[in-house]
C-alpha cells in the first residue's frame, strides 16, 4: 500500500501480495461512497475508544512486542505502534478477501480457497503475536471462512494477549457503514467512513461470545457509531 511519507520503525507487510502498491477498498456486493474532504480523502472523525484503551493498557510499559494489524498499512498506525518500540505486521484483509473470493464473496465455503486465503493472510508461526488489531473485517466472512480465520488468529497469538475487533450493533441491517481506523492516541481513534458495504453476516453479543468461545474472556463497549468494540483475551 502507498503511504504518505516514509514508514518509520520496524514495520513489515507482504510485498508479494497481488495488487500491492494500489490502495483499494473491496466491498461485498458493491459500495456507496462515503463523505470526502477537500483533498479527496475520506473525512475522519476523532473519538475516544475504550477498546483501544484496554488494548494498549495490556501492552503499556512494555517494548519489543509484535503486533498484527488486519486493516492494511496506514502511516498513523505504523508510526504510533513503532514509536512505542513495537514491531508491526500489516495485512490488508479486505483487499485479499476481495481478490480471493470476488466482490460477491462466492466460494467462501470452498476448503481450497479458504486454505489459500489463510496462506495469503495468516501464514505465521504459532504464538508469534502479542496482540491483533482486527477492526471490523470479520463481518465480511461467511461462516466456514470465519471459523477458519478465528481458529488461525487464536493460534498465531500468545496466551493472555488481546484482540481488538469491531462489530455493528444492529444485527438486522442489509448494508452497514464501512470504516477505516487510525490510532490517534492510546485511547482515541480517527474513524473515516468508506461507504456502505454488504456484510456476509452480523452478530449479536451472544454470537460474538460463541465465535470466541475458546478464548479466556470477551468484553464489549458500545460506541456512538453503533459499533461494538470487543476486547478478546486469548
Task: Give a verbal description of the structure.
The two termini are 30 Å apart. α3 runs antiparallel to α4. The chain is built from six helices and eleven strands. The chain is of the alpha/beta class and 234 residues long. The strands form two sheets. A seven-stranded mixed β-sheet has the order 1-5-4-6-7-11-10, with helices on both faces. Strands 2, 3, 8 and 9 form a four-stranded antiparallel β-sheet that branches. The chain has a single domain (11-15, 27-233), classed as Rossmann fold, CATH 3.40.50. The longest helix is centred in the middle third of the chain and has 14 residues, at 143-156. The radius of gyration is 16 Å and the shape is globular.
Task: Tell me the layout of helices and strands.
Elements: E1 11-13, E2 31-32, E3 44-48, H1 50-59, E4 66-69, H2 75-83, E5 87-90, H3 93-101, H4 111-121, E6 129-135, H5 143-156, E7 157-168, E8 176-185, E9 188-197, H6 205-211, E10 217-222, E11 227-233
Parallel strand pairs: 1-5, 4-5, 4-6, 6-7
Antiparallel strand pairs: 2-9, 3-9, 7-11, 8-9, 10-11
Amino acid at each position: 500500500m502507498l503511504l504518505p511519507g516514509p514508514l518509520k520503525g520496524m514495520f513489515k507487510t507482504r510485498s508479494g501480495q497481488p495488487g500491492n502498491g494500489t490502495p483499494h477498498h473491496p466491498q461485498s456486493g458493491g459500495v456507496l461512497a462515503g463523505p470526502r474532504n477537500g483533498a479527496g480523502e475520506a473525512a475522519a472523525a476523532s473519538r475516544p475508544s475504550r477498546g483501544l484503551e484496554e488494548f494498549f493498557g495490556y501492552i503499556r510499559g512494555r517494548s519489543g512486542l509484535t503486533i498484527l494489524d488486519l486493516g492494511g498499512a496506514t502511516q498513523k498506525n505504523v508510526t504510533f505502534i513503532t514509536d512505542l518500540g513495537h514491531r508491526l505486521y500489516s495485512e490488508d484483509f479486505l483487499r485479499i478477501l476481495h481478490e480471493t473470493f470476488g466482490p460477491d464473496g462466492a466460494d467462501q465455503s470452498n476448503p481450497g480457497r479458504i486454505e489459500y486465503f489463510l496462506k495469503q493472510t495468516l501464514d505465521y508461526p504459532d504464538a508469534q503475536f502479542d496482540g491483533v488489531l482486527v477492526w471490523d473485517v470479520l463481518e465480511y466472512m461467511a461462516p466456514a471462512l470465519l471459523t477458519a480465520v478465528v481458529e488461525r488468529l487464536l493460534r498465531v497469538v500468545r496466551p493472555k494477549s488481546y484482540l481488538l475487533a469491531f462489530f455493528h450493533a444492529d444485527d438486522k441491517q442489509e448494508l452497514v457503514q464501512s470504516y477505516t481506523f487510525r490510532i490517534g492516541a492510546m485511547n482515541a481513534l480517527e474513524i473515516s467512513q468508506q461507504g456502505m458495504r454488504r456484510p456476509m453476516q452480523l452478530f449479536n453479543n451472544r454470537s460474538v461470545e460463541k465465535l470466541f468461545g475458546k478464548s479466556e474472556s470477551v468484553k464489549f463497549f458500545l460506541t456512538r457509531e453503533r459499533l461494538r468494540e470487543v476486547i478478546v483475551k486469548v
